[in-house]
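Suppose a colleague, Dr. K., hands you the sequence of a protein chain of 151 amino acids and asks what its three-dimensional shape might be. Before reaching for any lab equipment, you can write down a predicted structure in token form. Begin with the sequence itself:
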Amino acid sequence: MFIHLQTIKIKSIIFYSKKFIVIIQNYAITLDNKKRILVVDDELDICLVLKIVLEKTGFLVDYFYNPVRAIDEFKSNFYDLIILDVQMPNINGLQLYREIKKRDEKVKICFLTASESIFDIADKFSPVYTFIKKPIGNEELVIAVNDLLNK
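The predicted structure, expressed as tokens, is then:
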């Protein structure tokens, strides 16, 4: 991929996960144009599994298993999609959703839940956002993520 550097304002270039990432006026792009996903779930094993599955499919994935830390370290205009667990200690996924939207109203959100009751309140949110029931198969997850990113 060729970028004409005289026509854009580069804020910084960082090396992350064996890839160069260019920060352009607070927007992040990877030189290979991979989509960036953030996973926030209080269960570390779920974070790791989602990271492995999605990275094998070609995404760049960061995760937090502490929702408070996720808010503290959240980067606006950096992620294409955020996958949030609904039931977490200290800050639940719906509260985290509100905090993230204050900082980045354009980012797409996908809620991940093991609870049946959450689907009862799903109607309160825009249909742009998806609720995925845990456990989910690898192929189903990748299909849901691709569908959301292509909306």
